[in-house]
Design brief:
Layout lengths: L4 E7 L6 E6 L2 H9 L6 H4 L4 E8 L2 H13 L2 H11 L12
């Protein structure tokens, strides 16, 4: 996994909560979510399963995409996720 900018979607074990974030280092950021390093929404709601991400060439494009996705209805987000990850697997489990 290259260290490029990304917009990502995470969920909890029950897949009831979606969280959309942006980062310049996806692996580090997902590690922080999984290890509950940062106080906030994902720690409070135990959101630690990476189910979708898009790599971008700049932080600006990642932020713009994040804003766009946050405006979407839940079913649009779910359809987007299902195209990339139909089984809702934790995509970070394949990382070393």
């Amino acid at each position: 996994m290259n260290k490029s900018c990304a917009v990502y979607i995470m969920t909890n074990y029950q897949e009831t909560t979606l969280y959309i974030g942006v980062t310049s280092d996806l692996q580090r950021r997902i590690w922080e979510h999984k290890n509950k390093v940062i106080e906030g929404f994902t720690k409070k709601y135990n959101v630690d399963k990476l189910i979708y991400y898009e790599l971008t060439d700049s932080i600006e494009s990642a932020i713009n995409r994040e804003k766009q996705l946050k405006r979407w209805h839940r079913n649009w987000k779910m359809n987007l996720i299902k195209k990339m990850n139909p089984e809702f697997k934790d995509l970070s489990l394949d990382w070393n």
